[in-house]
Amino acid sequence: GVAPAVQAQATIRWRLTSSFPKSLDTIHGAADVFAKKLNEMSGGKFSVTVHAPGELVPALGVVDAVQQGTVEAGHTCPYYYAGKDATFAMGTAIPFGLNSRQLTAWYYDGNGLKLFREFYDQYSIINFPGGNTGAQMGGWYRKEIKTLDDIKGLKMRIGGFAGSVLTRMGGVPQSIPGGEIYQALEKGTIDAAEWIGPYDDEKLGFQKVAKNYYYPGWWEGGAQVDFYINKAAFNALSPEYKAMVETAASHAHVTMQAMYDARNPAALKRLVAAGAKVLPFPKAVMDSAFKHSMDLYKELTDSNPHWKKIYTDYSNFRKDQNLWFRFTDAQFDRYMQSAKL
Amino acid sequence: GVAPAVQAQATIRWRLTSSFPKSLDTIHGAADVFAKKLNEMSGGKFSVTVHAPGELVPALGVVDAVQQGTVEAGHTCPYYYAGKDATFAMGTAIPFGLNSRQLTAWYYDGNGLKLFREFYDQYSIINFPGGNTGAQMGGWYRKEIKTLDDIKGLKMRIGGFAGSVLTRMGGVPQSIPGGEIYQALEKGTIDAAEWIGPYDDEKLGFQKVAKNYYYPGWWEGGAQVDFYINKAAFNALSPEYKAMVETAASHAHVTMQAMYDARNPAALKRLVAAGAKVLPFPKAVMDSAFKHSMDLYKELTDSNPHWKKIYTDYSNFRKDQNLWFRFTDAQFDRYMQSAKL
């Protein structure tokens, strides 16, 4: 048919700052996917330029930059901002939290997105789920971890919120940028380091200097990345562009998890061929980490009303999810994992 | 800024036929989500009306209707069409196949979408993943299944492709529409029936007439639903609308799995309270089903070049996925499922 004489959409130019270097083609790539889809859907009229950390904003400065409108959008891990408020941590992953599918279910069909939109309002941020890594590995260790005593005094590069659980276990968390981890491990300045999983870890070559590769990453059973949009910038969009932002984010969300799942297996095989020793954490280490995590959550529930409000919903959801997943999904997966394929 | 004087998008009216009744708010709902997002993104200019089975096209007539252009779009389970070509089955789920995340990974970042687009070209169909149920339950049984002998002669309502494995195990698959299953179970015309999982099964009340509820649904470790688009209709779209179709489908894909995951736990609890007995299949039954499935896949690989091409890629991917998932994801999930939450 003939095109009706309606008003065309306005031209929009947004800048998006990512917390992730371009070398992480999976996570940084999810922001590229988001920008590409918006560009395609709008015929080039809604353009988003994606900026690596440091180009406009430091890696961990996304909340401030989006809040102040320095940029219209960011792509980051909420838990980087747990120093502002521990509540942020639940937006990505907390130790012994929801896994990837469960977190996605909580956001989209539980109360997750609603509760976080309320929480982020004080930062003038509107968020959209923008990718998940799946369960991460538990990191690289120069020496084997055989008992809980091996955690005592362990100097480990680990993210902030999980670090507070490691401290309670007697470990010594270290904050070191990705690009400096290898050298610190090689020199023995640190004893261990966690990064992400096989596909990303392989690029940094850790197996050469700390070959013991532990699982599971109990502090990241499914780490979500979010798109943060400045509230005024979002509200200035037409209804059409708002819907495009939502679906472009969902597309990035589903394809980022797909990238990790599709690419990790071959990377794991290469790492093992290169000398990595893949080992499970001893049960005593898992149990200690679990106990200290639950203690921490209880303290936060008593002291932080934001945490209390969201964690109450999150932890009820987690309880139900694990009850259900234990049956058909877990049993199917376990059978397949032990089958001769 | 001022809107540029560009050509506005054309008005598009599509009809989408769903294989699923409106009562299945999860699966039928995914097509509604797809239509709603397209409507929002296009400012109402790209409208899709969603039709229940029988309104325009029978439930299982989606391939023919989309191929012939009777409708521009459909939302259906590819495995319904395994009678045309067994290859269709891999598009949804095959016994002991990929789980939900793995199938999504294969489609989006493996070769799945590419291979299926090639396969569907003979039907003038372009497909987009449009939802997954997660691992389904193994159905409702009037009597307990204690040994492999209990499968012999078992008259069971089960989908076509899985039915051919059940036949090899000595069972007698029955084809019965959803609305007639309850009565057949009550009268004893059939001994067992599988449907989907707690949230959908609860609506049909099976626990009242066949209380033994088995897991896992080894024939549906993650059942995907697809949007099928008529090739000529898709190719006639502007690049903008094509991109909108893609992201609206991705949004429906991620939100449908979220709906199932978020809603199944409470439904399972209600079913148990109403008398359902939740039981695992005996290992001998699982092993027999696995063996017969692998035999069938070997025969299909020898006889069907379409199957061979896609299954070769699919089965390699499955092997790698299960190697990888066994480590951090499965170990994390297992710990959580046994933890006191």
Q: Briefly note the CATH topology name of the domain at 12-134 and 221-263 in chain A.
A: D-Maltodextrin-Binding Protein, domain 2
How do the strands line up in the largest sheet of chain A?
7-6-8-5-9-11
Give the CA-based shape of chain A.
globular
- Kindly name the structural category of chain A: alpha/beta
How many beta-strand segments of chain A? Answer: 11
> What's the main sheet of chain A like?
6 strands, mixed
- State the helicity of chain A in percent bands: 40-55%
**Radius of gyration of chain A using CA atoms only:** 21 Å
Shape-level CATH architecture of the domain at 12-134 and 221-263 in chain A: 3-Layer(aba) Sandwich
Give the N-terminus to C-terminus distance of chain A in angstroms: 53 Å
Oligomer: homodimer
Low-confidence stretches of chain A: 1-6
The CATH superfamily title of the domain at 12-134 and 221-263 in chain A: Bacterial extracellular solute-binding protein, family 7
